[in-house]
Write a structure and sequence with these properties.
The chain has a 5-stranded antiparallel sheet, sandwiched between helices. A hairpin with a 5-residue loop joins strand 2 and strand 3. Helix content is 42%, strand content 25%. The protein is built from 4 helices and 7 strands; from the N terminus they run H-E-H-E-E-E-E-H-E-E-H.
């Protein structure tokens, strides 16, 4: 009995040491990789911001936007856009420091593969200058076509209060042609843009 107890204690000690060493190693790897991952994310985001608002050279958080973003969380529940949210609002500035437009980061949780996160660029007149996909997990060949210029570029030049999705193939000024076979993704991305439009028209004018 004593031998069995001794063997159990030895096994428990070995398991403890393995767990401790593994935890230390994981913590070390996390600390080493955390910085580069964050820097890579910032670089990727800035690249997207410049793509959707090419007139800007730098971007910074719009003053007071954190507070107003919280306000929109409840308002979106009444607008019929599904589960959408604003993540951040940035001012885009040119080389002289003049604000030349805005980038609004929004999301919809109603895409086919879950959340889809967008960056929407606006000029000072409120016209959409570009839409970038920062995150999407939809089906290749279907929902992932939302990343393609043929779909995203439809939003450029739009200046409306609300955009809707059409399957007609003949989109009006306030409409976006759906991705064939991916209406759910089309609605989700369009509603994420609608969230940005709502914020722009109600909190930035």
């Amino acid at each position: 009995m004593a031998a069995s107890k001794s063997g159990f204690m030895k096994d428990a000690l070995i398991l403890f040491v393995i767990t401790l060493v593994s935890g230390i190693c994981l913590g070390f790897v996390y600390d080493v990789t955390k910085g580069p991952i964050e820097q890579a994310t910032i670089a990727a985001n800035n690249k997207t911001y410049r793509e959707v608002l090419s007139a800007a050279e730098s971007f910074e958080t719009a003053a007071g936007s954190e507070e107003t973003i919280e306000t929109t969380a409840e308002e979106f529940n009444t607008l019929g856009y599904g589960s959408v949210a604003i993540e951040s609002v940035l001012e885009g500035k040119d080389a002289s420091g003049t604000v030349v437009g805005y980038v609004i980061n929004s999301l919809s949780k109603n895409s086919y593969g879950g959340a889809v996160k967008l960056s929407i660029g606006f000029d000072m007149d409120g016209t959409i200058t570009g839409v970038g996909i920062r995150e999407i997990s939809d089906t290749p060949g279907l929902g992932l076509k939302a990343k393609e210029p043929a779909y995203r570029d439809q939003f450029i030049g739009k200046n409306a209060d609300v955009l809707t999705v059409t399957k007609s193939g003949q989109a009006a000024d306030n409409e976006i042609n759906a991705i064939s076979g991916a209406t759910i993704t089309s609605n989700a991305t369009t509603n994420a843009v609608n969230a940005a439009l709502y914020y722009l028209h109600n909190y930035m004018n």
